Amino acid sequence: MTNVIILGPPGSGKGTQSKILVEKESFFQISTGDLLRKTVESGSEEGSKIQRIMENGELVPDEKVIEMILSEMATNNSKKFIFDGFPRNIAQAKALDNAFKEKSMILDFVILLEVKLDFLENRIKSRIAESDPNNVRKDDNLETLNKRLSVYQKITYPIIDFYEKKNKLVRIDGMDSIECVTEKIIQIIN
Ligand code: B4P
Q1: Cβ count within 10 A of residue 38
Q2: In percent, how much of the chain has pLDDT > 90?
């Protein structure tokens, strides 16, 4: 069956598209951002540490994120996984490769949503506008966005090359409408 990674800068639409693909194509979504936000909401000491990291626009340590991903894969026997927000660096990409090998699974596509960086400010502003005013994401502000963009360029960007060399990467214009991006993804995966 089909396993897909959705890659792109913060606010490029990874979560938006993954949720649509869950509905339309019966994928099982694994979103590290959503899983981390749940840990933060639990109010645990670990959650408070993670909250500070996310509010600073930095990456949560690999051990935590990889452990969450492996546990999600182990407890859900879906044949169609969509990874949203993971991997975000080479160490995470290699850990996912190993998990796939161990489970004899195949990674079919890595879909890169290409969005010009100066466009992302408006995306984050629209996510703030769409949110419940009492529940706006703490990392949704321009200062944190700039840090997240810098982390993306320095740390996440090299995995584009990693997947390109494996012939898994497909680039999509993420500046098209939400519907148009979905349509292109569905064409690719089918
Ligand atoms: P994430 O939760 O992954 O969030 P994201 O990158 O900000 O956003 P996404 O691309 O999903 O945008 P969305 O669809 O909402 O990460 C948050 C933080 O968690 C990270 O900074 C990090 O600290 C931590 N983290 C997560 N994964 C980690 C990992 N693997 N390792 C370490 N740390 C990790 O879209 C944004 C807005 O744009 C929405 O309002 C949407 O409606 C709009 N939009 C989307 N597509 C559009 C389109 N085509 N046209 C117009 N608007 C569009």
Answers
A1: 12
A2: 93
How far, CA to CA in Å, does 101 sit from each of 31, 98, 105, 107, 168?
21, 5, 6, 10, 16
Mean pLDDT on 49-75: 96
Q: Is any atom of ligand 1 closer than 6 Å to the C-beta of 37? A: no
Give yes or no for a contact between 124 and 11, defined as CB atoms under 8 angstroms apart: yes
SS (H, E, C) 43-69: CCHHHHHHHHHHHCCCCCCHHHHHHHH
Any atom of ligand 1 within 6 Å of the Cβ of 181? yes
* Rounded distance from Cα 15 to ligand 1 centre (Å): 6
134: left (phi over 0), alpha (psi -120 to 50) or beta: alpha
Q: CB count, 10 Å around CB of 167?
A: 8
Residue to substitute in 34, 36, 56 for testing ligand 1 pocket (most ligand atoms within 8 angstroms of CB): 36
Strands 109-114 and 169-173, sheet pairing? parallel
User: Per-residue pLDDT tens for 141-165?
Assistant: 999 999 999 999 999 999 999 999 9
Give me 113's structure tokens. Answer: 């949503």
Helix axes 178-189, 14-25, angle to 10 degrees: 60
